[in-house]
Every structure is written in C-alpha cells, then in structure tokens.
Amino acid sequence: MLAFATRRLILSIPTLIFISFIIFMLLQLAPGDPMAQVPLTVPPEVKEKMRQALGLGEPPLVQYWKWLVQVFWIEPQVLIDHIFGTSFAAGDLRVISWQTRSPVMEIVIQRIPQTLWVVGVAYVVAILIALPIGVYSAYRQYSVFDQAGTFVTMIGFSIPPFFTGPLLIVIFSVQLGWFPSIYDTTHVVNDWESFKVQLQQMVMPVMVLAFQITAQLSRYMRASMLDNLNQDYVRTARAKGLSEAVVVNVHVLRNSMIPVVTVIALGIPSIFGGAIITESVFKVNGIGQLLLTALFANDLPMVMTLTFIFAVLIVLFNLIADVLYGLLDPRIRYD
C-alpha cells in the first residue's frame, strides 16, 4: 500500500504541472483586462508602467514559468519560514494578487477558516444524515420511509441553492427573526456566548448546503446497498445464522461504502472551494466568494492559484479514495 501511494504521489507531480499549464493558457484566452479597473484619469503611460510591473508585458510562457517557480519553490519556503522562523524566502517575489497587490496565499489562508466553518460543517452534517437514511431506505425498500426519503431527495436535487437560500432568509430571518441573514466574518469565538452567536449565523447556510449534499449522498448509499443486499454472500451470511444487524451493518454496509467513498472523497475538495452561490447569498467571505470577486476583477493570479489548489485537492483525495478501497475490500490489493 505504501509503495502504491508513493508511486501515485510521484506520478501526480507531472499531472499537476500539465493541469496548471492548461489552466494558465485557458486564462490567457479569457476576455478582459486587469487595467480596466484603473480610473480613466490615469495617463496611458502610467497604465503601461503598471502593466509592466504586473508582468503583463512578458510572453505567456515566461509568465507561466515565473508562476511555477513561485508556487513550487518560493511559497514552500515561505511556509517553512513561518513555521520555523527562518528567512529562506526573504526578498523573493511571491504570487501577487492584481486586485489587492498582496500575496495570494496570505489571502487564501485568511479565507479558509470561514469556508471551513460553513461548508466543512455542512459536509460533515450531510454525511452523518445521508448514510443512515440511505442504509435504512434500502433495507426498507418501498416502505413509507423510503418513499418519503425519495421525495425529499428529489426536492434536494431539483431546487438550487440560489432559491433555498433566499427562501430560508425570508422565513427564518425576515418573518421569524430567528437567525441573522448576513454572515458576520469578523465575529471572533472566544467564549460560550460568542460560540452560540457563531452557531446561529451558521445555521441557514449549513442547512442549504447540507440539504443538497444529503440528497446526493443518500441516493448513492441507497443504490449501493440495494445492489449488495441481493448478492449471494448476503444469503450465505444469513444461512450461517448471523443476526440481521451484523449482516446489514457489517457485511453489506462495508461493501456498499466502496462507491460512496468515491463520491465523498471527490466532494471534499469542494469544501475548500467553497460554495460560490451560498457564500454569495449569505455574504460568507470565504474561498468561493474570493474566487467570484477575482473573476469579476480579472485577477488572473488569484484565479490561477485557486483553481490549481482545487486540482491538487482532487488528485490528493482521489489517492485517498483508492487507499480506502483497499481498507474496505480485502480483495483489492495494490502491491
């Protein structure tokens, strides 16, 4: 298993470099000019100097190489300096946001906690709800519970977050006044009272995201359980006298988790990507909102870095899912 993981990690390096090159070239073809945000009163020669300072006058391949060096060489040194107090990256040029003129990674690190508070909690809540619902719906196929669960999950699939978000705001914030409609990103949790305030402002965005994720995961769980409940090994386990709880919760559930693990693992990078629509509706100043503002401002270094981080997370969690396959199914061996 260790040799397999090592090989995959080594092979992921050229894969990520190729992905970053494709992303960079596609962004070069995107319409828009970062100098469009500059006031019209700025003289053309000043604008040209600003373009040169941002590196826009250089060929695309030169710009890509500089970005590559900054991300793979300078940023790791900055992280080492931050942890151990060294000065390896002192004076080196980092990836700078065209919009804020500050290092991109510092902005990303500032936004990650807000995204994890909302999107991360929503994903955990959805998993804890979806898996039991999917298991019980499959075991009690065509029961009232199964029919009700199918109806609710179809609603979760059909209604987008930009509808459920404002709907919850109208009901729970405007009409009932239970929860705030705007997420306060400046709120600091330092005692029990501030923690309760944090929970109150998290309820509605977490509900919106968890509802959508639960609908997806519970249907995958149900379909996988139904496929395994009719297998020969289940009849053999029952014939050997094992209790129904052991048959369902140990044998069937373990084999049914294999395809569901793929869905969960590939969905985890979306936590760090944030939910762009939900974060915009509730004014959560997270990674999704950061990507949206960077797109509107033609901030290519920010967009490039964020999309590359998403690609790294997808490759990483693909590897984690493959490793989990071997733990769930003893028949799967990589070495």
UniProtKB/TrEMBL annotation:
* Keyword Acyltransferase carried by entry: no
Reply yes or no: does the keyword Amino-acid biosynthesis apply.
Answer: no
Q: What is the superkingdom listed in this entry's lineage?
A: Bacteria
As recorded in UniProt, coiled-coil segments are: none
Residue ranges of every copy of the ABC transmembrane type-1 domain listed in the record: 112-321
Localisation:
Cell membrane
Family assignment from sequence similarity: Belongs to the binding-protein-dependent transport system permease family.
Q: What is the name attached to this protein's record?
A: Glutathione transport system permease protein GsiC
Lineage, broadest ranks? Bacteria, Pseudomonadati, Pseudomonadota, Alphaproteobacteria, Rhodobacterales
